[in-house]
User: What shape does this take?
Amino acid sequence: MFAYGPVPSRRLGKSIGVSPIPAKTCSYSCIYCQLGRTNQLQIKRESFFPKKNIFHDIQKVIKGNSADYITFVGDGEPTLCKDLGWLIDKCKNNFDIPIAVITNGSLLFQAEVRKDLQNADVVMPTIDAGTDDIFRKINRAHKNINFDEMIQGIVDFREEFTGKIWAEVMLVKDVNDSEKTLKNIKWQLDKINPDKIYITTPVRPPAEKWVTPPKPEKILYAQTILNNTFNIIDRENGDFGVTNFANASEALYEISSRHPLREEQAMKIERKFSQQGTLKKMLNNGELIKYNYQNIFYIFPKKFKTS
Ligand code: SF4
Assistant: This one.
């Protein structure tokens, strides 16, 4: 299933998610990734799946659902999909819904990737570091990604792109929340000149269990240094669309593969179907696991590799 939702998004409202790449295929293996450690670390772009099948899935999910955005997000890095430009253009020509792309920005140094994103409405690149050492520590990028080249790619994209750029900075306690590190991030952000800067913190179980959000006073401090930011440190609320799932087990598995679910969200999804007791069964047979992070229980597939 390539398209799903709508899912509630803290920045994009009701969002139809599209993942045009295989699970956990990424150019980074971020310490905070909610999908666990990266299985396939790569920078080579590919047509992983037939593009027409992906578009057909988007059509199916959009039918009968309203949404604020179609969001290319991927169970990893969506710009690794060679057909992304074709898919964005197809969506623009067929639906009256704005397109967002959530990307780590690592491949924007390639002109063909910048061209692929030209017709999106919003592009949301990640800037968690201002220097190579912190970049390696937090994003654990593929060895062939050069930090300066990556930043320059986003700067070049800013010059060419007429849509909105909303940069995201994920703050992790004792990794990128010091004054020096924040000033370095600010220096890079100033070069990019995004339309908005979002500060986020890990709210779902991270790939490395020692990863935690900074204390609230540190987040406020980061806000003053980065200047003009929006905080999205609260948990998202709202309903998950389930009309395209055949049954509760498919809905729980597919949604939690992209969005680890708080226990009450998983139960709410189950209640939308006639058969009850599915969540318990899936936890008992090990398909899904329950994981405590920051005193909240999350449900996600056992296949996620966390420390
Ligand atoms: S957080 Fe995003 S960029 Fe980082 S490893 Fe996960 S999918 Fe890749």
Observations:
- The first strand starts at residue 3 and ends at 9.
- The chain has a mean pLDDT of 91.
- The pocket of iron/sulfur cluster is lined by residues 26, 28-30, 33, 35, 38, 76-77, 104 (CB under 6 Å).
